[in-house]
Design brief:
The chain has 626 residues and is an alpha+beta fold. The chain has 14 helices and 31 strands. It has an 8-stranded parallel barrel with strand order 4-5-6-7-8-9-10-11, surrounded by 5 helices. Strand 12 and strand 13 form a beta hairpin. The termini are far apart.
Amino acid sequence: MKLYSVFFLTSVCVNVVFSRSFTIDYEKNTFLKDGKPFRYISGTLHYFQVPSEFWYDRLYKMKMAGLNAVQTYVEWSHHEPELGVYNFDGDYNLPKFLKTADDLGLLVVFRAGPYIDAERDMGGLPYWLLREHSDMELRSSDPKYIKYVDRYFSVLFPLIEPFLYNNGGPIITLQIENEYGSYGCDAEYKSYLREFAKKALKNNVVLFTTDGSSSKLLTCGKVDEVLSTIDFGSGVNVTHNFEMLRWTQTSGPLVNSEFYPGWMDHWGQPHSTATTEAVVKTLTEMLKANASVNIYPFHGGTNFGFAVGSNLGSTFQPIITSYDFDAPLNEAGDPTSKYYAIRKAIGKFFPLPPGPLPQPSPKMQLPPISMKKLMSLWDLISISDYSVFSQYPLSFEDLSHPYGFVLYRTTVNFQTPDPVILTVKGIADRAHVYVNKVLQGILSREQKVESIPVQVLKGQDLEILVENQGRVAYGAIHDRKGIFQNVTLGSKTLENWTMIPIPLDYDSMERINRLKNKYQKTDSVSVPAIYCGRFSIPDNSQIFDSFLKLDGWHKGIAFLNNFNLGKYWPIVGPQLTLYAPSTLFRKSPALNSIMLLELQHSPCGCSDECTVQFVERPILNGPTPE
């Protein structure tokens, strides 16, 4: 009798385990979930662009919009910020994110990379790949590259295996690479990634690829034995695009893996939007075609810190800090009119969950905050623990400095005409040039300025402050930063350089805060400099999200309580405010600090006082030169 009971219980457990399955029926052009036809309507949310404290809120709002799945990229560069150093904590706690989605009953479309784009620095690849092998061919079967992909995936895949749908978790599909047809046609590389995923995950998850809507892109991106999917935005011919997909993938479910509700923004270019009417019309046409659709992004979030990338069009195009994208949930996670319209459209094809509709949350406005100069750039450099000497300039990568700024300094040891032309070929990306702390001009990859006249005498220091504006995210991603070619002054090559990387991480900003009294006003230089303001929030007040408005400031980096809110550049637009999550503020008696590294112009004037303000409304559509 006991043996029978054990057998019965074992059989029940086995039946429960194997009743969960997610597969493809190619003959009937459908996914099968637990043996029944299924399609998903999902939205992209990148966990690394949203404070982890808000994951549940954003995912819940997505579910209430009628979505049954969430799609996310996985960003290698921040999971392995340095070779062999892994990070799965805080906003990079991937298991926590997957569990949160699962707890809400959302399935997960998992885009493992290794390359992701997402408008992130180097498309999510770690900068140190460029340091380890300067001749490495990224996104290819080059053994020098594959070696590091192997190591990373050998950490990532065991971590996510318990979260596969067939193992009781939420992950139903896993992407091989990302829009590879837009980059190359290396069949060996694509096959290698497929086989690695199949072996590491025991052939236990549906694999897919995503590519743009052209025969060339779909053909080069296609991987044998892997489902092909497509991406396109609103206002297109849906039938034609899915016919293009059918030309590549003759059977299987139709999927648009990236349906765009808006578009990204670049500094200096007008704010991008897509009309709700056009988005809803195209979405409805896809759902009528029985397609599965992922809205990219449903909630974009924010490129905090230095993680944002750039693009290469007719010129170099740095991307703004906000990833609002004109998405259904805006940068602060509030539902927009587009959210409610999309929900209504989805409700015609999928059951909508019961309960009250999410509403925009309150926002916080604070009185103007007085700012004072804390220290100049040269004060900051004087407390640096790290500098490197080299006969010729070294790149950020060679200096093991991933993001931000490096100061290049040399002494001119020969007589020069007045003025003389300084040339820095291939500057990456923007550089302020100083002689004895006096600004001579700005070199700019964006504006294609590699030469400027300078006034410099024998024995004077020439200093070049180079800003990394984000490695190219799409296309030519082998994008080294800094100065990595010879610098000439007139006809002569400058030698004997001291390079000082400028760390601006949380610990560095905390150290600057501690040293504020020692360095305040040690010289008269107004910029580049760090400015600081302190403010309190009454203990009886509620703390909400807010937006930092920077009237009168020109270009720099903003920090709230040592956390890097991102880059500001209001004089070129279109973004005029920075999103400040409520989680970063402190209640009284604790003081809050706001610090700016201002590069170009402080509005403080002779009084050495000026202000910033936290306001209730974002401004992402400010005036631009174009």
